[in-house]
Amino acid sequence: MSRRTLLAAGAAGAAAASLTGCAATADTGPDLAAAAVVPKGPATVRWWAARVARKDGGDLRPLLVREFNKKYPHITVRMIGAPAQTDTARAALATQIASGSPSPDVFMGDSVWPAQFAYNSMALPLRSLVGEDYWRRYPGPHVEALSYEGEVYAFPLYQDQPYLFYRKDLLRKHGLPVPRHWEELADSAAKVQRAGDADYGFVWQGSVYEGLTCNITELVADAGGSILTEDGKGITFDGPAGERALTYLRDLVARGITPKSVTTFIEQDSLDAFTSGRSVFLRNWSYAWGVANNPESSAVAGKIGCVVRPGFEGERGGQGCLGGWCNYVNPHSRNLGAAVAFARFLSDEGGQMVLAREAAVLPPLDEALQSRHVRDSDNPAFSEAHRVRLVARPVHSPHYPAVSKAVYTRANQVISGGSSVRTALASARRDLRAALKGEAL
Residue 32's pLDDT band (boundaries 50, 70, 90)? Predict the structure, then answer.
């Protein structure tokens, strides 16, 4: 019996056990009936997690644990430090959980992992444990990203989303409005450059890595399309929306609005170009505001603005690629009830309101995201967060890493001038077809 079949059998067995009063056995997989019950006696939960940033620069994890212990004083949470880099973390966990290790009980992971971890039975299915109404309190795209084949495999912890950052002083000097669409942004950037007031017009992330997939995903969505079909099994990237997105990025480089070196830019490179005063516009994640508007780290502090991303002319704007991290429950945990209680607490009002008050990251729970702590923030990346229309990456394939590689590799070839848009899209279709079959690229 495959690992996936075993997990499904475990779910069925646990459901039956909850009706008959009997526990599911080890032979049928994780005991979901036990996972739904918080232990009354002492228990220990090992939480594998990377640092969660506080507004004051500290680490939020100890505070979250203390808040949890106010409600569950008999459950001890032992923190295990984890790498913040998603691929490193995924590789370490995949080896450990796949081997059947009961530790960690709860692990913090990227929102792009659910399909891969679900497919390989490395995360506990959660929908039946908390009920359908539970998930309606979070943005639909966030829940969709954490789902695979109708089941949810992670509790949301925090989300991230991109914005357009811009030089208020330069737009004011040249009588230019904040761009309403991408075409207007390109023209405005070029005007400021021609006047000699900036080296670059617009910087973003174009290196051969996940960040470029994020840029492509949201630009394709801006053009009314997607990378894959909604079920993650069909390929749509090579349609008109994909062509419009790649053509726009290619033309930015060809016109000199974006530097040719963008093909090596990750988040920090693009942020450095903006904070040094060299660029008019920047696409980056919410954290960039705190860096760019800090006089200790930025030459343009006090001169910048931040808005939701525009769209293409004739299309609706305000979209942004969904980023963020969540908590998974190890199906091999020997303390499933305590593990679920802890992971759920961090996603419920108790944990999420701590994020709203204290964190330098966004809480995905609607109640927390709409709270005064977030909406009244002097950080526009927070106060404007509720206006962003989240777009999930094509994460519904268990082979997502290969899917992403197919996207960012071919896109990078276009912006570097090594391939035409149509040739790259045709190659991307072949790569994506192989990736969806689980074949190595």
Answer: confident
pTM for the complete prediction? 0.90
pLDDT at 27 over 80: no
Name residues whose C-beta falls within 8 Å of residue 100's C-beta, 6 or more positions apart in sequence: 332
At how many degrees (to 10) do helices 349-358 and 61-71 cross?
150
| Distance (Å, whole) CA 421 – CA 253 | 13
Res. 260: pLDDT tops 80: yes
User: What does the DSSP 8-state code read for residue 360?
Assistant: S
Please tell me what DSSP assigns to residue 179: P
In angstroms, rounded to a whole number, what is the distance separating the alpha carbons of residues 246 and 305? 26
Determine the pLDDT at residue 292.
Answer: 97
Closest C-alpha among 420, 221, 241 to residue 309: 221
- Beta pairing partners, 281: 166, 202
- Name which of 123, 110, 118 is nearest 210 in CA terms: 110
Q: Which of 372, 371, 432, 358 is nearest to 399 (CA)?
A: 432
In sign, the C-alpha dihedral spanning 362, 364, 366, 367 is negative
CA gap 247, 227 in Å, rounded = 15
